[in-house]
Design a protein that fits this description.
Elements lengths: L2 H14 L3 E5 L1 H5 L12 H4 L7 H6 L1 H20 L4 H11 L5 E4 L5 H4 L7 E3 L2 E8 L5 E3 H9 L14 E5 L8 H13 L2 E5 L11 H7 L3 E5 L12 E3 L3 H12 L2
Parallel strand pairs: 1-2, 1-7, 2-3, 7-8, 8-9
Antiparallel strand pairs: 4-5, 4-6
This protein binds zinc ion (ZN).
Zinc ion (ZN) binds next to loops.
């Protein structure tokens, strides 16, 4: 089946589905200029992930200083990014009542920025635009924390209680947020169409979500440039760019 035929088939699946779920990965963000940190030449090729673990962050002032030094350099890339046609197509599917929810591995807030309501976005790896005090729970915008870093406060502490301020992203060695994981599993199992977009399905346990969906009887579709370990069990595989395929599908879903 050519790309056109695959797009038409996916559009038809969206039209027929009662509970379509979209699952997005780094491939959706790269087209907004956010590098895939895990890809060759990515940030974790240049920095040792073992130095940026949750344990190091919590465990010592030096661990936090090292983390924030890197964060000060990487956050402006996320802040400058804008949603691309893939994000807009997903938000539009929601507006046309063709989306139960979007489960994402991305931390860049771009699904929200494209207009998808917060309750429709399940973030498995957290959100880089927000931070929180681990002691008192005070919430901070990452922009505010970034301002402190720029003012050479190299290990930001909570303004209210002096506690450790941590971004709402899931660090290496940190468990994924239990509430989000449970909700994502529930939605995956309840879905009748589960569409993976821009994920190589290499990072577990996030990559179990399509497995849950498939086992519960959903039609599984994978839209990704590279092969994934689940291609063989998918009902439809589309080799294409998210920002190209999704708007074409959205177009054919119609009003
Ligand atoms: Zn606090």
């Amino acid at each position: 089946m050519g790309l056109g035929g695959s797009v038409a088939r996916l559009a038809e699946l969206f039209v027929r589905a009662r509970r379509p779920v979209v699952f997005t990965g780094a491939g959706v963000s790269t087209e907004s200029g956010i590098p895939d940190f895990r890809s060759p030449g990515g940030i974790w090729d240049r920095f040792d992930p073992n130095e940026f673990t949750y344990q190091n962050f919590i465990g010592s002032l030096e661990g936090r200083r090292r983390y924030w030094r890197l964060g000060r350099a990487t956050y402006p890339v996320i802040r400058a990014a804008r949603p691309n046609p893939a994000h807009h197509a997903i938000a539009e599917l929601h507006r046309r009542a063709r989306l139960d929810c979007c489960i994402t591995q991305n931390i860049d807030n771009l699904h929200h920025a494209a207009g998808l309501p917060a309750e429709k976005v399940i973030e498995l790896h957290g959100n880089a635009t927000r931070a929180r005090c681990l002691a008192c729970g005070a919430a901070y915008a990452r922009d505010e924390v970034h301002g402190w870093l720029e003012a050479d406060d190299d290990v930001p502490a909570c303004r209210a209680c002096g506690g450790i301020v941590k971004p709402l992203t899931v660090l290496f060695g940190e468990a994924m947020p239990a509430r989000e994981v449970a909700e994502a599993e529930r939605r995956a199992r309840a879905s009748d169409l589960f569409v993976v977009v821009g994920s190589s399905l290499a990072v577990y346990p996030a990559a179990y979500m399509p497995v849950h969906a498939k086992h519960a009887g959903a039609t599984l579709v994978i839209v990704n440039l590279a092969p994934t370990p689940l291609d063989a069990s998918a009902d439809l595989v589309i080799r294409g760019r998210a920002a190209e395929v999704l708007p074409a599908v959205r177009e054919q879903v119609g009003a």
